[in-house]
Inverse folding.
């Protein structure tokens, strides 16, 4: 994991923005400045643009030609501490010289610093908003009056001026981060430079954000700028970074973050728009790029395989560099990924949530709308004035793990998979091994039932990856595991497990485009399937999808119904789709009717018939948020199938053995429900 330090570059070899030459020429300007009085140069630019780095490039070209002092005023607070520390820092830098005059200058600076410190520590309390110059005047007057000091502060200054004048080389003072200080501290520094520290052979180089400092110095920015012009002789703006240089920096930090991380392949079509319209406009300074890059390591490491790389990079840029906009996305997460948002009316709560997002950054409203349109196209359509450049294909969203899909956006926001979800890498492994029946069967056998159903749901999105040679082995492996799928309904809109499987079957058959080849494949698959239910499901899905003709479907179904007729009750009592098999088989084969009544004499067959016939529904009372899940039996159809009297007698007869049998909870639920039907109960209709 690489952390891109926000520290400035130290030398020309690290310069990636082409600023070496301007640093060299500013250094020449410093060396050529007048020796008669102090000289002030400013390096101006917004936070993060590289002011400190430019100071280091200037320093590199001043090497051994001047005495360089780096003074960090924000390490000190208060006027007295600021003044005393400044002159002591100056003295320390000069004390390295062996010449007698340098030693004398250092002693004079120490005396000067001590006098200032003594004056300011003994001066009576005064208005805290009094300027530095007034403080010094008040202090001097107080000391002369109370102590009768024989040598005035002015005499010390004249002595220092003479000694600075005799120096062989200039003293250059770098004062950085002036814009990080408070209003009074900024004023103290400016007065220090022009009043207290104004000596010959002394050059000040101040680095700051001009707008911020001007706002602190004056009643408004304009008056503050006018004041700065009186202080600064030469102002240099940090050059605007060349777009190509910023691009290369950004590409480098992204490459470094991606290396070693497990991520999805970059979708170049999606990324080209997201880079140009969303990410690149945010990368104004090297600091922006470093902050963005530092955020990527953790996010890519935790969910790199679960979210489309282009979307993940874009959302990270928004999160780090436009936090208010990102907060509005998070607040509107449900509306952004709602399956029906594009149909919502303009005054719906979801639509209002979408429309509120651009208001989080009115200054960059067009950028915000472009971003929403590219990442959440369904949400943007009809609710934002934006051109739609992103795909609206939801199958593609699922395959590529785009954040427009609710579960993917939630994965990004939570930095982990939703509870019960399975890793994309596992899904891709399952899809890639489908042409090997044994491998897929082993993989499914090792999974618990719930995860297997989730796998089937996730596999739907990979239909474009399905190959004809995978179809038959995949159908065999999947249909042979169908008995493990969830039978109950868990939510108002939720389906059962076999519905997820049927959608995968449909997509597998769809990838075989030749009708004759597909029909032959289905015929060859049927004898290899373990369950009669699996055979029936395959033919029904193929018929309803018109993958085979009605004539061929009837032929295949008749063969399945004949197999049922020739089976015994023990085998049939294990069938996961027993009720559907029997109802459809008896409707087509009258001779089977009597056979089924014989089968029903077996408790196992009867119990499985009731269990697989029981269905779940959901209902919600008007004005209530509570959803009730209820179960029902096809009691009338079961009565027609077995005879109502026989049905009642068999349920009552079987009831005596319930307690002694280790029945499946759903089987027990169906039997108890049957008892209620016998007592006259029926589910209410809504």
């Amino acid at each position: 994991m690489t952390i891109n330090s926000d520290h400035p570059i130290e030398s020309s070899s690290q310069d990636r923005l082409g600023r070496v030459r301007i640093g060299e020429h500013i250094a020449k300007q410093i060396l050529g400045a007048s020796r008669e009085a102090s000289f002030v140069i400013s390096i101006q630019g917004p936070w993060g643009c590289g002011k400190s780095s430019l100071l280091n490039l200037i320093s590199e070209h001043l090497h051994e030609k001047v005495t360089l002092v780096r003074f960090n005023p924000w390490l000190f607070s208060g006027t007295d501490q600021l003044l005393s520390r400044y002159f002591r820092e100056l003295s320390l830098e000069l004390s390295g010289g062996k010449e007698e005059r340098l030693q004398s200058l250092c002693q004079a600076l120490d005396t000067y610093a001590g006098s200032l410190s003594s004056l300011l520590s003994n001066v009576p309390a005064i208005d805290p908003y009094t300027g530095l110059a007034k403080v010094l005047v008040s202090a001097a007057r107080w000391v002369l009056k109370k102590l009768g000091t024989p040598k005035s502060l002015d005499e010390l200054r004249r002595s220092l001026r003479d000694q600075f004048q005799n120096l062989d080389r200039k003293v250059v003072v770098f004062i950085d981060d002036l814009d990080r200080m408070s209003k009074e501290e900024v004023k103290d520094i400016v007065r220090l430079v022009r009043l207290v520290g104004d000596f010959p052979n002394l050059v000040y180089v101040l680095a700051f954000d001009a707008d911020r400092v001007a706002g602190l110095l004056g009643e408004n920015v304009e008056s503050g700028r006018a004041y700065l012009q009186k202080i600064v002789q030469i102002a240099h703006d940090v050059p605007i970074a060349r777009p190509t240089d910023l691009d290369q920096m950004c590409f480098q930090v992204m490459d470094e973050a991606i290396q070693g991380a497990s991520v999805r392949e970059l979708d170049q079509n999606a990324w080209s728009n997201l880079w140009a319209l969303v990410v690149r406009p945010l990368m104004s300074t090297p600091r922006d790029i470093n902050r963005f890059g530092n955020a990527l390591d953790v996010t890519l490491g935790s969910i790199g395989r679960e979210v489309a790389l282009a979307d993940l990079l874009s959302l990270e840029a928004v999160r780090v560099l436009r936090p208010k906009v990102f907060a509005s996305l998070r607040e509107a997460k449900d509306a952004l990924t709602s399956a029906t948002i594009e149909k919502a009316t303009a005054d719906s709560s979801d639509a209002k949530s979408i429309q509120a997002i651009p208001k989080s950054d009115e200054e960059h409203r067009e950028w915000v709308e472009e971003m929403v349109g590219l990442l959440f196209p369904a949400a943007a359509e009809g609710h934002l004035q934006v051109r739609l450049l992103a795909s609206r294909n939801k199958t593609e969203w699922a395959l590529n793990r785009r954040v427009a899909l609710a579960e993917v956006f939630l994965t990004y926001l939570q930095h982990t998979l939703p509870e019960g979800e399975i890793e994309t890498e596992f899904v891709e492994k399952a899809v890639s091994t489908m042409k090997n029946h044994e491998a897929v069967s082993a993989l499914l056998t090792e999974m618990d039932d719930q995860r297997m159903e989730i796998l089937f749901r996730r596999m739907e999105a990979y239909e474009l990856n399905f190959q004809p040679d995978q179809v038959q082995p995949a159908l065999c492996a999947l249909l042979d595991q169908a008995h493990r799928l969830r039978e109950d309904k868990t939510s108002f809109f939720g389906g059962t497990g076999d519905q997820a499987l049927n959608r995968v079957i449909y997509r597998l058959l769809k990838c075989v485009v030749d009708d004759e080849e597909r029909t032959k494949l289905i015929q060859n698959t049927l004898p290899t399937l373990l369950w009669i239910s699996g055979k029936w499901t395959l033919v029904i899905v193929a018929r309803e999808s018109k993958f085979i003709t009605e004539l061929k479907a009837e032929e295949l179904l008749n063969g399945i119904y004949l197999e049922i007729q020739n089976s015994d009750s023990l085998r049939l009592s294990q069938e996961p789709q027993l009720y559907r098999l029997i109802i459809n088989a008896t409707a087509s084969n009258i001779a089977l009717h009597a056979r089924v009544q014989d089968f029903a004499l077996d408790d196992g067959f009867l119990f499985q018939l009731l269990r697989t016939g029981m269905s779940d529904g959901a209902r919600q009372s008007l004005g209530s948020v509570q959803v009730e899940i209820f179960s029902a039996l096809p009691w009338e159809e079961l009565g027609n199938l077995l005879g109502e009297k026989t049905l009642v007698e068999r349920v009552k007869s079987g009831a005596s053995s319930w307690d002694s049998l280790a029945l499946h909870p759903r089987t027990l639920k169906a039997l108890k429900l049957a008892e209620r039907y016998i007592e006259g109960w029926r589910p209410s209709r809504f």
